[in-house]
Amino acid sequence: MTEKPILSVRDLKVYFHLDEGTVKSVDGVSFDAYKGQVVGIVGESGCGKSVTMKSVLRIVEPPGKIMEGQVLLSKRDNPDEYLDITAMNEKGKDIRAIRGGEIALIPQEPMAAFSPIHTIGNQIMEAIMLHSDVNKKEAREICIRALSAVGMSMPEKRVDSYTWQLSGGLRQRAIIAMAIASNPRLLIADEPTTAIDVTTQAQILRLLKDLQQERNMSILFITHDLGVIAQMAQYVVVMYLGRVMEKGPVDAIFHNPKHPYTQALLQSIPSAQKTTKVKLPTISGSIPHPFNKPKGCPFHPRCTRAVNGKCNRDLPSEFVVGDQQFASCYLYEGNEEFVR
Ligand SMILES: Nc1ncnc2c1ncn2[C@@H]1O[C@H](COP(=O)(O)OP(=O)(O)O)[C@@H](O)[C@H]1O
Ligand SMILES: [Mg+2]
User: Fold this and answer.
1) C-alpha distances in angstroms, 127 versus 96, 120, 308?
2) Residue 158 falls inside a structural domain
3) How many domains does the chain have?
């Protein structure tokens, strides 16, 4: 790709130093996101998806600490130049201008988005006024437009409601309205539909897709659901135990996966044709405890193709396995190595 990414995460490491030991939640993660692209980040629970996203916004809670790596964001007015988010003071004005302004988050816990004691309108307006030079009346108009853009009927009335007066679906729409009100270039949606029922989930996914297309936003879409990834993402990053196992265009990941982990993950999807009597194949072995991450490739204890003396010893680099497709696996050692 000749175009430059708007976000480039490079060899990011985020550790939690606890009394019991060190949790290496994110342990060398790299991926890029381009303008107007939806990048799906998929992986089992606990693999470091949320911590990676919190690092992009510099909201990792203590004792979590960014140990190494860079999170580069292209400048809005000069896309050839980058700001390194990891180098910013997490309480400083640089990151505050980016957080909620250029990069917005739909958090994994929907209750975390709004306070119950203020109206959604007041909270959205406050966010708008933080990032643009408008007065209260103008902010209210922008807020009402955002509520309308996310498909809320009677936005002039709903703007004065409290979250507890809204259904789960409407609350989720209000959260999305808050996220898009400042016209972010990048939206991070961290499992945005896990807390809602399937019908509403389909509507919210549709809404996100429409907003993404209308505004040519980039989205980092985090989920543990491969079906949702297939529906939403153009590019997919597959994570396991704090590492990227494989990344590539959505078709390649689903139809031509190269990493044994991706292959195992895809086999574990329940297929509509299968009767319930057929036992679903699951990846054998359980995810190791984060304190005891295995040496070498973190997947080797569960991998049917692991090579003793190799996969249990060193971390493989990322090898080119297709067009824009990379796998961190010794099976492809003879291939070209991915270098930036
Ligand atoms: N505040 C914290 N304190 C200690 N460990 C944490 C904290 N937040 C996350 N972790 C650990 O980091 C790892 C990755 O977590 P997370 O990014 O939330 O996973 P997920 O992929 O499900 O979003 C997990 O092992 C989790 O236990
Ligand atoms: Mg998470």
Assistant:
1) 11, 11, 53
2) yes
3) 2
pLDDT in tens, 137-166: 999 999 999 999 999 999 999 999 999 999
DSSP strand pairing (38-42 vs 235-240): parallel
- Written as six digits, the tokens of 222 are 């985090």
Q: By CB neighbour count within 10 A (0-12 exposed, 13-18 middle, 19+ buried), where does 157 fall?
A: exposed
> Is pLDDT at 268 greater than 80 in this prediction?
no
Do the domain assignments include residue 288? yes
Residue 45 Cβ contacting ligand 1 at under 6 Å = yes
Whether 16 is in the pocket of ligand 1, judged by its Cβ within 6 Å, is yes
* Domain finish residue from 162, 183, 204: 183
What was the pLDDT predicted at 277? Answer: 39
Domain boundary among 154, 183, 212: 183
Q: Which of 25, 27, 44 to mutate to test the pocket of ligand 1 (most atoms within 8 A of CB)?
A: 25
> What's the Cα-to-Cα distance from 193 to each of 158, 180, 202, rounded to whole Å?
21, 17, 9
For residue 189, pLDDT over 90 is answered with yes
Q: How far is residue 306 from each of residues 238, 296, 297, 298, 313, measured CA to CA in Å?
A: 18, 10, 9, 11, 11
Instruction: Report d(CA 290, CA 322) in Å as an integer.
Output: 31
Q: What is the pTM assigned to this prediction?
A: 0.93
Q: Which run of H or E residues covers position 21?
A: strand 21-33
Tell me the per-residue pLDDT of 200-209, one tens digit each, with 9 for 90 and over. 889 899 999 9
Give the per-residue SS3 of 84-100: EHHHCCCCCHHHHHHEC
Cis omega (within 30 of 0) for bond into 63 = yes
Domain enclosing residue 266, as ranges? 257-332
pLDDT at 244 over 60: yes
In a domain, 217, yes or no: no
- When the pLDDT of each residue in the chain is averaged and rounded to a whole number, the result is 91
Determine, yes or no, domain membership for 42.
no
Could you give the count of Cα atoms lying within 13 Å of 313 in the half-sphere of its Cβ? 5
Q: Say yes or no: CB of residue 80 within 6 Å of ligand 1.
A: no
Beta-strand relationship, 218-223 and 186-190: parallel
